[in-house]
Write a structure and sequence with these properties.
Number of helices: 19
Distance between the termini: 49 Å
Order of helices and strands: HHEEEHEHHHHHEHEHHHEHHHHHHEEH
Bound molecules: adenosine-3'-5'-diphosphate
Oligomer: single chain
Largest sheet: 4 strands, parallel
Strand order of the largest sheet: 5-4-6-7
Helix content: 40-55%
Radius of gyration: 19 Å
């Protein structure tokens, strides 16, 4: 449109320069913003979300720490909400043509890229995603929207994160990432704070914040689809069930179905670090940490996480 876009990183340079900073390996510098360790690029986007994002009635926000099933949740929630327009049996379904990240925008990344206005232009009901901790959400958003949160056993999350960075060529040896995570200093960490914020919100207002675990989704994806339908106010009817809609959605969104699509075999996601679409579909199993952590590392990390979660009613 001919207007000069000031990059959010430049716009918020005064704030960024004051934040504590650590090197997470040679390729990744993290800043601590509102208690959370993030790249400067993401901090800038989050500040913009906090200052500019205008929530609307009917918005649905998906939230997660990275590498906990975001891509899968995006696909399931989109397919569930849009099923009248796009039945899952549709050979030309948008999820068969596009990567789930292209259907459900990543809010702070959009703002970081100077594209926040695109979120304004989306028709309601909007389906959006954030990795922000609950404590960082702008009040308008934390107060009114329905949110679906997904988390995952933290050791598996770390292993998934390490593979993901490696896929993008980042040099972050696993023992280094592990050590950072023990101190809460992994990207988007501390992980326990991320989980506890949404856990408390979902406990206080379960009709507004739905709390999912990756492991439970894997154990019964069709039940997850039904739960999503009920929570989002679009429950599956007897006719939907008879037509096999929840089962079709779960199958269309399975890791094997998604990874076999051209849209997910090619293409790039991300503006700051570039990730190939295929990197979002790796193993999709529970317990892969065992291939990367010694029993001693696992014991140490479990003890830290257990200690941080003690008294919350949440455990992994
Ligand atoms: P692994 O690296 O352990 O395989 P995110 O989408 O938040 O980045 O999370 C990525 C993790 O979810 C990866 O875990 C990936 O394989 C897994 N995943 C992606 N799509 C999935 C799906 N449809 N079903 C189950 N797991 C999926």
């Amino acid at each position: 449109d001919g207007q000069t876009v000031v990059s959010p990183t430049a716009e918020h340079a005064d704030i960024l320069s004051t934040l504590p900073s650590i090197a997470a390996g040679p390729d990744l510098q993290l800043r601590q913003y509102q208690g959370v360790w993030l790249s400067a690029y993401m901090v800038a986007g989050m500040i913009s979300v906090q200052r500019r994002f205008m929530s609307r009635p009917g918005d649905v926000i998906l939230a997660s720490p990275p590498k906990c099933g975001t891509t899968w949740l995006k696909a399931l929630a989109f397919a569930t909400m849009a099923r009248t327009t796009y039945p899952p049996s549709d050979a030309d379904h948008p999820l068969r043509r596009l990567n789930p990240h292209e259907r459900v925008p990543f809010m702070e990344n959009q703002f970081s890229a100077g594209q926040g206005a695109k979120l304004e232009a989306l028709p309601s009901p909007r389906l959006l995603h954030t990795h922000m901790h609950y404590s960082m959400l702008p009040p308008s958003l934390a107060g009114c929207c329905k949110m679906v949160y997904v988390c995952r056993e933290p050791k598996d999350m770390l292993v998934s994160m390490w593979h993901f960075f490696k896929s993008a060529g980042l040099n972050l040896p696993f023992p280094d990432l592990f050590e950072l995570a023990c101190h809460g200093q992994n990207p988007y960490g501390p992980i326990w704070d991320h989980v506890l914020g949404y856990w408390a919100a979902s406990t206080a207002r379960p009709e507004r914040v739905m709390f999912l675990r990756y492991e439970e989704m894997l154990a019964d994806p069709v039940s997850t689809v039904r739960q999503l339908g009920r929570f989002l106010g679009v429950p599956f009817t007897a006719a939907d069930e008879a037509a096999g809609s929840p089962v079709d959605i779960a199958e269309m969104c399975s890791i094997d179905a998604l990874r076999s699509l051209d849209a997910n075999k090619t293409g790039i996601n991300g503006s700051f670090i570039k990730f190939g679409h295929q990197a979002f579909f790796r193993k999709g199993v529970v317990g892969d940490w065992v291939n990367h952590m010694t029993p001693e590392m696992a014991r140490r990390f479990d003890a830290i996480v257990d200690d941080k979660l003690r008294g919350s009613g949440l455990a992994f």
